[in-house]
């Protein structure tokens, strides 16, 4: 109850003598939020009874529209966006995307954000304008690379929902996940099939902020979940077989982090 009360009303004590306290609601209070992602967000994943978006709904009165599907990668975001539009149109207030851990696990090459071409452009500064040779960059739309997939996804989402707040979350730390003999995933201290560590995908995700002008919340760094040590196994489904999917306690910690991070982001 105390957590719910604190989340509903944030209080700032003004330092000017004689001024009363300024009280204001959380900017995301009561908003309709779409969630795109993979198994960590998927409501059908039974690693936890509650997800981070469930807690945010309880604390902030938000309405979640969840389109995440277990095992999906960044190339599934356009499909999730289409489904959101088909079911709810333009009524959503914000979109939160947590994706990337499966791109790492499946060895998707990182790729690049831009392709460069030699072109000419009209330019004049201090002298008459004239066609001038310059290099020009174009978004790389390579569906076979991580950055290319993100470009395709962000181009789709930002065009489809141009007035909405879009927030990207970095993947969280991951340890072992042993579902069965055909789904045996190693921990983040091993490279994937293309020789990259998970950190490279996290770093690339953080780059999205400047490439696409969207806020990126570094959940990997801020939520504190670190399954690489046994002491943090308590936040995950199973200490021996699943330190990839947070349990209720882990999702609550993610939710608390997001609640305060989202406080700094407006709903347009």
Coarse morphology: globular
Category from helices, strands and their pairing: alpha/beta
Q: Could you describe the largest sheet, including whether it forms a barrel?
A: 5 strands, parallel
Going across the major beta sheet, what is the strand order?
Answer: 4-3-5-8-11
Task: Show unreliable segments.
Answer: 4-16
Q: Considering DSSP H and I runs of 4 or more, what fraction of the residues is helical?
A: 25-40%
Give the N-terminus to C-terminus distance in angstroms.
29 Å
Please work out how many helical segments DSSP would assign. 8
Instruction: Give the DSSP E fraction (strand runs of 2 or more residues).
Output: 15-25%
Task: Give the ordered list of helices and strands.
Answer: HEEEHEHEHEEHEEEHEHEEH
Mean pLDDT: 93
